[in-house]
Amino acid sequence: MQQDSEKTTCDCEPMQNGEAMSPDVQDSKGSPGDEESQRAIPSAPPLPQETSPCPRPKLVFHTQLAHGSPTGRIHGFTNVRELYTKIAEVFNISASEILFCTLNSHKVDMQKLLGGQIGLEDFIFAHVRGETKEVEVIKTEDALGLTITDNGAGYAFIKRIKEGSTIDRIKTVCIGDHIEAINDQSIVGCRHYEVAKMLKEQTRGTPFTLRLVEPKKAFDMIGQRTRAPKSGEGKMVSGKETLRLRSKGSATVEEIPSEFEDKAIRKVDDLLESYMGIRDLELATTIVEAGKNKQNPDDFAEALDSVLGDFGFPDVFLFDVWGALGDVKNGRI
Fold first, then answer.
1. What are the Basic and acidic residues biased-composition ranges (predicted)?
2. Chain segment 217-262, per-residue pLDDT in tens
C-alpha cells in the first residue's frame, strides 16, 4: 500500500518594497530653468524579496486494526505514544487498548514489529487488547526461555519463546502476549528490561503467576501459536527513506541504515537478548550510533552512559558490543 504525501503549496508573496523617494522630488519637473530641481535624486536599491520557505510535504500513513477494520489515515505524530493516540482517534478507541503495531502484516509477526523506524510506504496494523488469561509457572531452570520487548508506551510483551524451555511447555503462552502482572503486581508502565529482571529474579522451584493479555486476532489467526523466525529477524525497513521515531525530540525522515549499521544493529540486538533477555531494535540502533565513531571502548562507554545510563549495562556487555562493532567494521561478521 502506497503512503500518501499530501502536496502542500506555498503562497509565497514577495514583500512590497516601495522605492524610497525624497519628498523634494515628488514632482521632478521643478521650476522652469531650475536644472538642479529637475534632476531626480536616486532611489535606494530595492530590498531583496523575502519568501516563506515551503514546508515539507505532510507524511500520511494508512492504518488498520489487525483483527479487521476499515482503513484509516494518520499523520502528525513524532513518537510511538503520539502514533497510538492518532490511531486511537481514527478508530474511536482508547490508546491504552493498543498493545503493539506491525508493519505490512496483520499477523503477530515479530519480524514485522514496528520499532523506531517506519518506511514511508509502510502500512501500519495496530494489535489491540483481546482475552486476558492467567498461567502458573514453576521455574525449573535459571532461564524461563522468554525474550521480552515493549511497545514504547508502557506495555511489555513476549517477543520470543525458546524451544524446549519452561515457557514453551505452557502452550497457552504465546508470542505477542502482553505481560500485565506478575503475582498480581501490575507491571504496566515498566520497561522491558525491568520486566526481564523481575522474571529472572523469580525463585527457582517456587510457583508464580503471570497475567497475560493476548492481542485480538482475525479469524485466520485463531488457534495459531506464532513463533518468531529463527533467522532474518530484525531486518530494517525496505523503503528508501524511513520516519525515525524518537523517545525524545521530533521524528525525522532519514535514509535507511547502511549495510554496516544494519549488521551492527542486528548483532547488538542479539547481545541484548543474551545478556538482558530483551530484544529492541530502537535500543540497538541507539547503541550503534553511540559507538560507531568512537576510537576506544572507554569513549564508547562514556557516550553510552550519557544517553542510556538508566540501563546500567554491565561492563562485559559493553566490551562484547565494542568487539562486535569492530568485527562488523572489519568485515568479520
1. 1-10
2. 887 665 655 655 544 444 444 446 777 776 666 777 777 777 788 8
- Crossing angle (nearest 10°) for helices 315-329 and 259-276: 160
- What are 129-132's contacts with CB under 8 Å, separation 24+? 129/97, 129/99, 129/178, 129/213, 129/215, 129/216, 130/67, 130/213, 130/214, 130/215, 130/216, 130/217, 131/213, 131/214, 132/180, 132/211, 132/212, 132/213
Q: Quote the CA–CA distance of 126 and 108 in Å, as a whole number.
A: 10
Of 275, 137, 277, give the one whose Cα is nearest residue 204.
137
CB 291 within 8 A of CB 325: yes
Angle between the 315-329 and 297-308 helix axes, to the nearest 10 degrees? Answer: 120
Instruction: State whether residue 278 is helix, strand or coil.
Output: strand
In angstroms, the CA 122 to CA 34 distance is 77
100-111, pLDDT tens digit by residue? Answer: 999 999 999 999
**∠ CA 189-194-196, rounded to 5°:** 120
- Write the DSSP symbol of residue 140: -
- What's this model's pTM, rounded to 2 decimal places? 0.71
113 close to 100: Cβ distance less than 8 angstroms: yes
**Which cell is 308 given?**
542510556
Question: Mean pLDDT, the chain, as a whole number?
Answer: 80
Which helix (H) or strand (E) segment holds residue 242: the answer is: strand 241-244
Which three cell numbers mark 209?
A: 503467576
How far apart CA 74 and CA 234 sit, in angstroms, is 25
- Grid cell for residue 260: 554496516
Place of cell 521480552: 148
Residue whose cell numbers read 536599491:
45
Q: Distance between CA atoms of 219 and 108, rounded to whole angstroms?
A: 13
Give pLDDT, residue 30. Answer: 45
Q: Output the nine-digit C-alpha cell for 76.
A: 502528525
Side-chain half-sphere exposure of 252, counting CA atoms within 13 A:
7
The 241-244 sheet, strands edge to edge: 117-119, 241-244, 252-255
